[in-house]
Amino acid sequence: MSITQRATYFGLKSGLPDELVTDELVSKWERESCKIFDYYYKKGEFYTIKSLQVMSLKNVLLEYSINLTDRKLVDIVSECWRYLINNCPVYEDVAPTLSRLVRDGYELGLITDGDEENVIRILKKHNLGNMFKTKIISSVVKRYKPDILLFERALEKAQCAPEEAIYVGDSVKDIYGAKELGMITIIIDRNRKREKTEEIQSDFSIDSLEQLYKIINKS
Fold it and tell me: What's the pLDDT tens digit per position in 62-86?
């Protein structure tokens, strides 16, 4: 069970009887969350991650004839995030690499899909908040990646031209917006599972953040 699934499981247990919290319920909520996100993204309507999770949870529970109040649904979602933030580790190469880049004079920025409150809590939990001079968060901009607006805002705040910026992401989806603006793009593929036949290719591919230095020195 992944950390996300465990967070979902413990969140559900905080508001439902134990016998109702099954692997099936966890999986259904995950699928419904993805479905609702895709639906509203395609419609061009923005909702926070928390709002989307509340909507999806309500839909799934109604399949079981469980009708909770909106307050109770929010409490369950909040408990999921509390568990996730408190228990989700970061890769060992993250803090050392970011610290070295900052010491070497590079200006770091963060572009992330998430709700501002949770993003800030995660950064604080792992002492990463001060690493990033620029933070672009979807709930603030009211857009999700790969919308080009997030990348434009990042460049504006950093006062940086696209060709002077390097974007590192772990999803091909992320690359679209960055590449459209002319940023140098890097996919971090820690498990080396990405296919070379994907529709869009990053400029570089790495399997650990430490490999950034080789690319930076060549750029």
Answer: 999 999 999 999 999 999 999 999 9
Helix axes of 49-63 and 23-43: crossing angle, nearest 10 degrees? 130
Could you tell me the domains of the chain? 3-87 (1.10.150.240), 94-218 (3.40.50.1000)
Burial class (CB in 10 A: 0-12, 13-18, 19+), 47: middle
pTM score of the predicted model: 0.90
Amino acid in position 108? L
From residue 73, alpha-carbon distances to 37, 59, 77, 183, 195 in Å are 17, 11, 6, 40, 39
- Which candidate, 144, 163, 154, places its Cα nearest to that of 107? 154
Residue 12: count other Cβ atoms within 10 Å of its Cβ.
Answer: 23
Number of neighbouring beta carbons within 10 Å of residue 131: 18
pLDDT digits (tens, 9 = 90+) for 98-144: 999 999 999 999 999 999 999 999 999 999 999 999 999 999 999 99
Q: What token pair was written down for 122?
A: 């995660």
Cα 145 from Cα 125, distance rounded (Å): 24
Token pair listed for 18 = 């134990």
Q: Specify whether the CB–CB gap between 203 and 185 falls below 8 A.
A: yes
- HSE-CB for 93 with a 13 A CA cutoff: 10
